[in-house]
Design a protein that fits this description.
12 strands; 41% helix; alpha/beta; four-stranded antiparallel beta sheet; Rossmann fold; 8 helices
Length: 224
């Protein structure tokens, strides 16, 4: 869930629409006080916080967040006015993870959100991942299917690692593109389909565990 704190309703609506259309859940707030109250009961993955807000400005909201052990770990991207260098420096010094300079494009917003989320994710464990007859060792970067070693490309390996890390979870093609190809990849979703096809073939009988979820994408269901 991405929270956007922006007093301009038209900008806030565009931010929320863009984030939702690119696969995120998003919620908007028009002032810092309402946002801080909501934090008492819910926890977002990341906050996009405008500096210029009525009442409590964004810098003060950021200061209060970072002073709280409960809220300090939440990543924050500050939105600052063009030329407001002091706001940028002050925000970064207080613990902001990134900043956007207004006016900014919506695709830049999405790219910054994805980049900060990746940086702030806990490091994945290097323990082997298993499901059915599949075993993937992240440290050795090896894969076996029913005991036989399988040679995968980098993208195929990362796709399989994502599936094995969350067995049973359905991923959209857009989510797979973002997670494996990165935020700047401009390819089409059929790229995912082609890689899934070759991955299934290489995994042999185990490839059948990668199921197509109609109108959604793909998931891995471990066989019993």
């Amino acid at each position: 869930m991405i929270w956007c704190v922006e007093d301009d309703a038209s900008i806030r609506d565009i931010e929320l629409y863009t984030l939702r259309s690119t696969g995120f859940e998003a919620r908007g707030f028009e002032d810092g006080g309402t946002f801080l109250t909501a934090l008492e009961t819910e926890r977002p993955q990341l906050v996009v916080l405008d500096v210029m807000l009525p009442g409590l400005d964004g810098v003060e909201v950021l200061r209060r967040m970072k002073a709280s052990p409960r809220f300090a770990p939440i990543p924050v991207i500050m939105a600052t006015a063009r030329g407001a260098e002091y706001d940028k420096v002050q925000s970064l010094d207080l613990g902001a993870d990134d900043y956007l300079v207004k006016p900014f494009g919506m695709m830049e917003l999405v790219s910054r959100v994805k980049a900060v989320l990746r940086r702030c994710q806990p490091a994945p464990e290097d323990r082997p991942l298993t499901a059915g007859g599949l075993t993937l060792d992240p440290e050795e970067r090896t894969v076996t299917a029913d005991g036989a070693r399988v040679s995968l490309t980098y993208k195929e390996f990362e796709l399989l690692r994502l599936f094995l890390s969350r067995p049973g979870a359905a991923f959209t093609r857009e989510q797979l593109l973002s997670a494996v190809w990165g935020m700047d990849y401009a390819g089409e979703t059929r790229t995912v389909d082609m890689h899934i096809k070759t991955l299934r073939q290489k995994l042999g009988d185990c490839g059948g565990m990668i199921e197509t979820v109609r109108h959604v994408g793909y998931r891995l269901e471990a066989r019993t």
